[in-house]
Amino acid sequence: MRVLEFKLKGKAEQYRIIDDMIRTAQFVRNKTLRHWVDNQGIKLVDLYKQCAVMAKEFEWAGKLNSMARQASAERAIFAIQRFFANCKAKKPGKKGYPQFKKHTRSVEYKTSGWELSLDKRYLTLKDGFAAGKFKLIGSRDLHFYAPDEIKRIRIVRRADGYYAQFCINVERKEESISTGKVIGIDVGLNHFYTDSDGKTVANPRYLRKSEKALKRLQKRVSRKKKGSGNRKKAINKLGRKHLKVTRQRKDFAIKTALCVVKSNDFVAYEDLQVRNMVKNHKLAKSISDAAWSQFAQWLEYFGKVYGKTISAVAPQYTSQECSNCGNLVKKTLSTRTHICGCGTILDRDHNAAKNILAKGLKQSKINLNTAGHAEIHAWGQTDLYSMVATSTSKSTG
Questions:
Q1: Dmax of the chain from CA atoms?
Q2: Angle between the 49-57 and 66-88 helix axes, to the nearest 10 degrees?
Q3: In whole angstroms, what is the distance from residue 369 CA to residue 361 CA?
Q4: Are 297 and 304 contacting, i.e. CB atoms less than 8 angstroms apart?
């Protein structure tokens, strides 16, 4: 599934209609959840029937396209299913009991209620709200995809405008060149990551750099009278600044992950539980600013696109174990150098990256000590996967 995003260019009245559509979608979602709460024994499939009931009971709800109402109900159904799945799996901590939404920012259509122009540069929303025709502004081209490949359209409201996201049912595959290299990655706060070769990538710290401007804009919001037009303008400026930081962080994560995947045939990284780590209030802001989870998600995505092997390993003892002899060398978070009795002296993160690589190779059952290939760089242009197949066939034969 691919998602292409375009900015919607329209009139102020059209944007107000989109706001009404989003509020209606939020109402349908919350009403569906309320029906489930009041009728605990009901089947989830029966919740779809409430969409038609709401359309008859509330005239303004009937203006929303029938498939858009179903998509809104699905949001509540998915939240319920996720709650049951977490309970069944005995997930530690909170299980994520479905909550009512107050600040929804999007409305979703399926295959009806909208229409693309012949040149695919304009989008028309045709349901009862009649939002009208919008110009699509973006660098992507929808001509590469057939109309039946577009399965959903999501209209999203952000601080800097309104956007249309096209969910296209195609698999993205890119040609890749084998490099014969493997790498382990240890993410951190001093450096964004340190790899098993000792190379580091600087941590951009976008939130920290914008903190002064964000505080200034927040002060302007607090000084404005509640409910006034000036307060709304100040809130919008603050939202735009937060949006810029979010986009900078996402852009950095995408470009860094793409570079790592294209440069290596095998990548191992720590499967960190960031949700638990941010409970440390002294480091929570820095951890959130680093966006480790987002980086890991893009590593997995590009691994599938380019056909590379990405392995997530458990983070336990990666910083404490010696990468040379395997002995435990306990150290506090402030100790940045790994010093072992075997004579190994390494940067703490470099040592951890080596351990992560070793764990990832073992977890993926890849043996680098194949006869005639004492070092990784001795592979030359040999494909990693053929090497794995050779070593596997020898071990089983």
A1: 78
A2: 130
A3: 11
A4: no
Q: What are phi and psi for residue 107, nearest 5 degrees?
A: -135, 140
Q: How do beta strands 309-313 and 266-270 pair? A: parallel
Question: What percent of the chain has a predicted confidence (pLDDT) above 70?
Answer: 92
Distance CA 58, CA 212 (A): 47
The edge-to-edge listing of strands for the beta sheet with 182-187 is 200-202, 191-195, 182-187, 266-270, 309-313
Give pLDDT tens digits for 288-329: 999 999 999 999 999 999 999 999 998 888 888 888 888 888
* Gap between the Cα atoms of 12 and 42, Å rounded: 42
Residue 104, helix vs strand vs coil: coil
- Banded pLDDT at 279 (limits 50, 70, 90): confident
pTM above 0.90, yes or no: no
Helix-strand-coil split of the chain, %, nearest 5? 45, 20, 35
Reading the block at residue 239, the tokens are 């939202």
Separation between Cα atoms, residue 292 and residue 338, nearest integer Å: 23
Predicted confidence (pLDDT) at residue 341 exceeds the cutoff of 90:
no
If pLDDT is split at 50, 70 and 90, which confidence band does 369 have? Answer: low
Rounded to an integer, what distance in angstroms lies between the CA atom of residue 397 and that of residue 384?
A: 20
Q: Please report which residue ranges of 186-319 form alpha helices under DSSP H.
A: 206-223, 229-263, 274-277, 284-290, 292-306
Q: Where are the beta strands (DSSP E) in the chain?
A: 2-9, 106-109, 114-116, 122-125, 132-137, 150-158, 161-168, 182-187, 191-195, 200-202, 266-270, 309-313, 337-339, 345-347
Q: Phi first, then psi: what are they for 103, rounded to 5°?
A: -130, 60
Handedness of CA 274, 278, 279, 280 (dihedral sign): positive
Instruction: Evaluate if residue 394 carries a pLDDT over 60.
Output: no
Quick one: DSSP state of residue 44? G
Which residue from 195, 365, 328 is spatially nearest to 269, judged by alpha carbons? 195
Matching residue, tokens 């964004």:
192
Per-residue pLDDT at 385: 41
The region, left, alpha or beta by phi > 0 then psi within -120 to 50, assigned to residue 326 is left
Distance separating alpha carbons of residues 369 and 120, to the nearest angstrom? 54
Over residues 164-213, the pLDDT tens digits come to 999 999 888 888 888 889 999 999 998 999 998 889 999 999 999 999 99
